[in-house]
């Protein structure tokens, strides 16, 4: 606790994910008062053709 | 609002996703009374070996 | 297949969910060429204090 | 983009969610280089009887 | 690893969830060769008016 | 009902998924008293660089 899922466009390098995992974990622990070991984060890479806003695929924008 | 996630078997061409995104967004707006910009849709492609019904993988059916 | 999850603000009456379930199922079948029995939809009611955009809870907007 | 879901034990006051939404959004924007408007966060309150680790419900620990 | 989410109709007593958490954890460990501590399970209670199959809410069946 | 999602590290062979699908379905039916046909399971393969615990990616451990 907590368990965090982050959906983001694919193509992000591992350096970005590493930094984001550190930052989100740090903030979650600070605000919720939990230990880092309690924080699980899963990133879900989403292709632009798999994400639509306002009915339009991001690969079409 | 709303946020819609659609799990479907992989292998669908982008034309199908484009049409489905349009159709689901249109219906969500009509029924919920929201603007298209409020509707986010994410498609999750699922391999047949990753989906089981009645305990049997779809890749085995 | 497919399995659809819809996150929407809570407070929607069942009549709206009934109509939305019918509409989304109909469109999914039309576009994907599947039978209605293959379509599962789950609605997730989200309280305004549990949804944030741009870092602001919707209960604060 | 990105869309963040946070599962946490229920009972957290809205002040905590407000602060967490701000903090996670700020860090996501900093690391990913996106605007705050692009960040959606949904909190899912989970009862202790609905979360198990090592096969034991947290309500039993 | 692994992280398991179980959507089920609401109304199940805690005794059922306790037994199901134990059983799923045991089987996951046996098949995947992991320790029980590695297994997280979250149950999501779904109201019958929030689940539709074939376009019909389960509260209407 | 129920619908089960299992997030696990990628790289697992289909034989493991087949066995796990059978085992989880059997236990769900036994405990919940449902038929196998009512059980849907989706596996989500997660790369080690997409999963973090305590702020550290599993690909870095």
TrEMBL record, chains A, B, C, D, E, F:
Enzyme Commission (EC) number: 5.3.2.6
Matching InterPro entries: 4-OT-like_dom (IPR004370), Tautomerase/MIF_sf (IPR014347)
Domain 4-oxalocrotonate tautomerase-like: 2-60
Molecular function (Gene Ontology), one example: isomerase activity
Superkingdom in the source lineage: Bacteria
Keywords: Isomerase
Ranges in coiled-coil conformation: none
Protein name: 4-oxalocrotonate tautomerase
């Amino acid at each position: 606790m907590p368990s965090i899922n982050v959906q983001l466009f694919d193509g992000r390098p591992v350096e970005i994910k590493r930094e984001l995992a550190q930052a989100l974990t740090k903030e979650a622990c600070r605000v919720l008062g939990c230990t880092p070991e309690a924080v699980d984060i899963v990133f879900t890479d989403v292709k632009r053709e798999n994400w639509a806003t306002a009915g339009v695929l991001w690969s079409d924008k």
